[in-house]
Every structure is written in structure tokens, then in C-alpha cells.
Amino acid sequence: MENNKKELRLKYKTLRKQLSENDIEEMSLAIANQLLKLPVWEKNYFHVFLPIKEQQEIDTELILHLLSGKDKEILVSKSNFQTREMTHYLLTDNTKIKKNEYNIPEPVDGIEVPSKKIEVVFIPLLAFDKKGHRVGYGKGFYDKFLGECQAETIKIGLSFFEAEESIDDVHDGDIQLNYCVTPKTIYSF
């Protein structure tokens, strides 16, 4: 059986649909606890995705609590579906969050921060392999965004499921993860 991105997208969307709300809560908590073991906490600017509930994504609220408890600068994005670009805004107590047409919660406006300043990015994904390649939804937003970050930006994938052996159709433009964290494992690439 081929392990291409299309197949993997299908497989993991199906696996995700089988998770209960309780599963998601428990696994998200386990992931947040794993993150505490990573050597990233001296950094300041952290980019976090806000989960698409309808896609059974990891609940990042616990990660937001960790970051605000450590007084970090938290960035959330707004996606432009015409240009496939993301604009990053500081998350503050006054940030208004609103769902866009794809059910992605986004900041309405705020203080913009360039990609170059971001030191750690938590990345949503559907699947990943043991070399640190990831499969997202295929829209290319994160590839573009990660390409704008500094080379030393730490890229951390978050996944409910363990790594695949490999992904067949990886290409040069794909940016590798530094870590991927699951409820049970920290993968370091």
C-alpha cells in the first residue's frame, strides 16, 4: 500500500473522526504535558494554532495556558485563502476571536508580528513520518509560513497518533519538523 499524502490524509481524517470528545481532551492534555519536557522554554515568541473543532484537532487551550503562565508572547494567525498567506497577531486579553468560513478561529485584528520574529511554532498536522516530514491539509499555508521563519525557528508538530515509517511523496520544498509530540512520545528529528 502506498504511503502517499493523499492516502495518509484520508486515513488520519478517518482515525480522528473516531475520537470522542473525551479522547481529544485526554490526549490534548497528555501532549501539553509532554511539551514541558522540550528544551524550548527559554524562547519568547510562540506561535499556536487555534483548533478547528469540526476537524477533531488537538485542543491547544492547555498549551495557551502553559504559555501565558510562563509569560510568553503568544501569536495566532489569520489565513488569507487567496494568497495562501498567514498574518500573525499577538494574543492578548483584548483579542477578539472569530471563526472564518472554514471554521478556523482567527483573531479579528491586533498587533501584527512578522514571521521572522517567531521562535517556536506548534504545527497542526494529519500525519508525520520518522524523518520529520508532515502531512497537513494540503493547502500549503504552513509550508509558506515556515519558509518565512528563521532557519533556527523550532518547528513542533502535534499529533494524536504515532509516526508513519515514511511518506512516499515528500518533495524538496517540504520543511521538516524539529520535533513531533504525541500523547505518548516525543520524536526528535
From TrEMBL:
Class of this enzyme: ligase
Necessary cofactors: Mg(2+)
Database matches in Pfam families: 5-FTHF_cyc-lig (PF01812)
InterPro entries: FTHF_cligase, FTHF_cligase-like_sf, NagB/RpiA_transferase-like
Entry binding sites for substrate: 50, 57
Chaperone in keyword set: no
A GO biological process held by the record: tetrahydrofolate interconversion
Binding-site list for ATP: 5-9, 134-142
Entry EC number(s): 6.3.3.2
Keywords: ATP-binding, Ligase, Magnesium, Metal-binding, Nucleotide-binding
Reaction(s) this enzyme catalyzes, per UniProt: (6S)-5-formyl-5,6,7,8-tetrahydrofolate + ATP = (6R)-5,10-methenyltetrahydrofolate + ADP + phosphate
A molecular function (GO) term: ATP binding
Family: Belongs to the 5-formyltetrahydrofolate cyclo-ligase family.
Record protein name field: 5-formyltetrahydrofolate cyclo-ligase
Originating organism: Flavobacterium sufflavum
Lineage: Bacteria, Pseudomonadati, Bacteroidota, Flavobacteriia, Flavobacteriales
